[in-house]
């Protein structure tokens, strides 16, 4: 490889972040032709193409994704260095990049991350929300330190990642006070024909709920299905139907969404995992998260089930 020109790398990094040469040219205040020329020089220096055509746009090649990861770290460190030189805080602060699947309740995610923020030297937490496959792809190239999921790594997926069970919780059904008055009596049989707001059919919780309902021969009326747990609860808060949530955060759901518990189902267990690229956890913040989750957040509900 020829000597790497960091100006060329900066142009590449900006194009990758902005999504196109035109947008990057507006940010950098130089012509698209100049950026294109610099990218060709960088391709030649590295010995591989960093972008490939995708319709009228550009997408990163495999080499480009690896280069972007390094460039991201280089310019992040450069930004921190400038901050320190100007009299800012120490650049030794750890960064914790966390991926959170859309099916994880936001309150659970906060409670899981909270112990890391309480460390003597807390990390700067950067949260990313996406589907599990997308997050595992980011984990595989070390752009994430940890992924929170309600299901383990799918079998057969060619990703080096390890599951760490944080705990499990029973499921409670919630509703506005008006709806609760109608469906609380005779629960769970009252769920028959009841308006339900449910997670999407791809979620682990949905599969367990469907199995439980079928076992009891109950056929509720599904009003809507959601990938995002917060959107599901927002519909529930508006009175569109009853909705499930982890018993472990029952009080918080009632307070935040101004709903009440209709009934509890211990037979349906919702499990939560931390997925890391390493079998033995090393990041101090990740260790704090897993220890506190097992000792406090899920301890009561897990003990009750045992």
Blueprint (SSEs and pairs):
Blueprint (H helix, E strand, L loop, with lengths): L5 H13 L2 H8 L3 H15 L4 E4 L2 E4 L1 H24 L9 E7 L4 H12 L6 E7 L1 H9 L5 E4 L12 E14 L1 H7 L11 E5 L4 H12 L5 E6 L2 H9 L5 E4 L3 H8 L2 E17 L7 H14 L1 H7 L1
Parallel strand pairs: 3-4, 3-5, 7-8
Antiparallel strand pairs: 1-2, 5-10, 6-9, 6-10
Helix pairs in contact: 1-2, 1-3, 1-4, 5-11
Number of domains: 3
Tell me the CATH superfamily of the largest domain. Periplasmic binding protein-like II
Extended strand count: 10
Helix content: 40-55%
Task: Provide the descriptors you would attach to this structure in a database record.
D-Maltodextrin-Binding Protein, domain 2; Arc Repressor Mutant, subunit A; six-stranded mixed sheet; 306 residues; 24% strand; alpha/beta; 12 helices
Describe the structure.
The structure is a single chain. The chain is α/β, with parallel strands linked by helices and 306 residues long. The chain has 12 helices and 10 strands. It has a 6-stranded mixed β-sheet, with helices on both faces. The protein has a two-stranded antiparallel ribbon with strand order 1-2. α8 (204-215) links the parallel β7 (195-199) and β8. α1 packs across α3. The chain is elongated. The N and C termini lie far apart (59 Å). Residues 301-306 have low confidence and may be disordered.
